[in-house]
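Data availability (excerpt). The following record was deposited with the supplementary files.
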Amino acid sequence: MRLTFLGAAGTVTGSKYLLSHNAKNLLIDCGLFQGLKALRLKNWVPLPISAQKIDAVVLTHAHIDHTGYLPLLGKNGFTGPIYCTKGTYALCQILLPDSAFLQEEAARNANQYRYSKHHPAKPLYTREDADVILKQFVPVDFDKLYEIIGLFRVTWFHAGHIIGASHLKIEVEQTSIVFSGDIGRLNDPVMRPPAGVKNADYLVLESTYGNRTHPDVSPESSLAPIIQSTYQRQGTLIIPAFAVGRAQIMLYHLYQLKKQKKIPSMPIYLDSPMAINATQIMQNFSTEIKLPPDLCQKVCEMANYVRTQEESKKLDLLTGPKIIISASGMATGGRVLHHIQRFAPYPENTILFTGYQAIGTRGADMLAGKKQIKMLGSYISIKAEIAYLPNLSAHADKLEILTWLKIFEKPPKQVYITHGEPEAAAALKSEIESTLAWSCVTPGDLETVELK
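Predicted structure:
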């Protein structure tokens, strides 16, 4: 059996792993590369295996860095089944068409503002491609063994992180391999904690926060003063937030602060159709979250929902303090770009980032202190306050990852550390080797290993 790392090796995005045995090919996750241009360009490079030779896909969860390549895979000839949990399927029904829309919008903007060297610029894939690939999804249940293409036995375990997120255990003959996916927090206020996996011969482990521990401070204690100071300046607080997971946890903390009267009364807008839909999906999967149904409903009703582009544009004309939560979380596209363009040049406003910012994204650039950011074909001045909440991540940190690993009854033969920047992956490798004495490697891009 061979495992090939087609993405997320030496970087956080583009998760794709190819498991091959007896002329059968199973793809684990199928994500887009994001961040630096050099990474994004990889999305346009053909995979080393023909899409037609991939027999099936299994998904850990719905985030675009794990699923966003699927429409292109289908466009290139993949016709097999895509297995995932019911929550992941529900989220992919909104995430993949939205990703296609962003691809088409980027191409339109490039053609309108003539900032692409390609004429005309074309999208990576279209809404039609996304609609077609969604017909190939096969929803599965957690904690149930499924036989796939007559060879691979696969079980999905709760991973926390977001609705539907899972760890995958794949068994082939007498060999087993676990893919951690993105491991959720042990004490997330909304999501259930990740389930433990007791044994595996091999482990592919994420390392997004492998060199960090999350601050031991309440997000609300950090969030309240940011809101208060923006209000005192009569400014607008823009919160770029991932539509799935991060937007919902923000609503939860805003609800708690408002209930405790720790923030002034000001309108809150959720300006993202995808985030609105994801918020409603969260209510439909109540068994995966900690919140009782009545509290979940109150949290979801915290904000004014902004669905249309016309309503979104009107937000930029409103005067007075307000909070706008909008996607995308790294300011790589979507409606939040227009809000940043409108409010970033003025010091009374605040732009608050609430999670990991990949290298090369506008979010990372603003956090690094850049005073001019290229956006929608031109440069805008950044004079607004730039703030960051480091303790809202939905990823386990290095200590939480170690806690999860200690559930294993015996060490895997090999741990492959992926889905992290080089420094994070190397730090987690060192931590596991020194603490648990497990054998770890950080595979390279397109590297193939033999599993015996």
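Summary of structural features: The radius of gyration is 21 Å.
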